[in-house]
Amino acid sequence: MANLTELEVENLRHIIGGHATIANKLEDYAQNSTDPELKQILQNDAQAARQAQQQLMQFFQ
User: Fold this and answer.
1) Rounded to whole angstroms, how far apart are CA atoms 49 and 8?
2) Per its UniProt entry, which superkingdom is the organism in (predicted)?
């Protein structure tokens, strides 16, 4: 792990959790959407949130 302070680690955990929540909600909205264009937008945004989450997780390695 990089030389992160306790506060930085806590902030990262909070941000990572936020991205997970957003991704889950967007995936749920996409599943319930009947508009194909909106469904695709929601799926793309969910994927972007998951990618951001994974990138942030690299700070813990």
Assistant:
1) 20
2) Bacteria
Q: How far apart are CA 26 and CA 56, in angstroms?
A: 19
Smallest CA-to-CA distance from 47 within 31, 23, 30 is with: 23
| Prediction pTM value | 0.85
Q: How far is CA 52 from CA 6, 31, 32, 34, 41, in A?
A: 21, 21, 24, 27, 17
For residue range 1-52, list pLDDT tens digits in order.
568 899 999 999 999 999 999 999 999 999 999 999 999 999 999 999 999 9
Domain residue extents for the chain: 21-54
